[in-house]
């Protein structure tokens, strides 16, 4: 009879966990905080309730994708503006100057993705992502106020650093 009750309780836990409820009340071993989502033995989330922002699993996920989205958007935003940036009453950029900006952005991105792996190994993904977001914020604002092709290219290079956030996001979400 006790075995039947334990079997029923196990089925109940399985049903609730399938719906994204941490019915076993598994807690963080360091601080004793109960996770909001069901987790495995390594404390990795087994369900992904997109609309929740519970700590640590979903908050890490949402912070990660939003950080990457913002750097992705800022890196590729100048491309559709190329026609406007070529006009004489704006920056009056030539085709080659726009291409130099693209090259600077991609080159900085490639180099910084490699370096971001080292940063994530040594300092952690959260600090790496925060660092990249802080580094890219001033050039994102600065590109709106630039008055020359050189300023545009320099801002594009520093904005390209932002795509290194991809590495930090992947490390953060998968750890």
From TrEMBL:
The chain crosses the membrane at residues 65-85, 128-145, 151-173. GO terms for molecular function: nitrate transmembrane transporter activity. GO terms for cellular component: membrane. Signal peptide: none annotated. Its main location: membrane. It is found in: Membrane. Gene3D superfamilies: MFS general substrate transporter like domains (1.20.1250.20). SUPFAM superfamilies: MFS general substrate transporter. The keyword Chloroplast does not apply. Residues 60-175 form the Major facilitator superfamily (MFS) profile domain. This is Major facilitator superfamily (MFS) profile domain-containing protein. GO terms for biological process: nitrate assimilation. Belongs to the major facilitator superfamily. Nitrate/nitrite porter (TC 2.A.1.8) family. It comes from the Eukaryota. It comes from Calcidiscus leptoporus.
